[in-house]
Amino acid sequence: MKAFIIDRYGKREAGRISDQPEPPLRDDDVLIQVHAAGVNALDSKIKSGEFKLILPYRLPLILGNDVAGTVIRVGTRVDHFKPGDEVFARPDDDRIGTFAELIAIKASSVARKPKNIDMVEAASLPLVALTAWQVLVETAKLKKGRKSLSRPVLVASAPSPYSLPSTLALSSPRRRIQPTLLG
After folding, report:
1. Residues 6 or more apart from 51 whose CB is under 8 A from it?
2. Domain that holds residue 167
């Protein structure tokens, strides 16, 4: 399969397209044919080596943290996805690699793609949605039954032309906006 890889860390290092083996499929994985992959600041930081102490990847490395595509095969313990399902996902930190034709991802990290968005839109969401979740649930301690006042803001982790549901409030690149809890 074709993949975009880096051979070493560095801000000025260029990646390259390379032939790579098909990723192995574990019992709890789905193998996804990649239709679209999101590009975000995390990919740039990994490429430059900023995370090499906390995320010790082996080089060469296939970059990419957001994906949308079609399931082509499932592991023996996967019963809620089947070949042909349209999905989107953010693979675990130790299994990134969405800048490729195929990626194997733990089924518990995969979700069905909503029918009302296309593959490119779906691939732009996983890391952005995770950031929103972390801000609202982990930082602001938003709980079920509570509401959050939101204003239109930009997502600091990655640019996205899509607004999140009106119950979400995120960080602006210029100033931090804390979600306001109501009720």
Report:
1. 45
2. 126-182
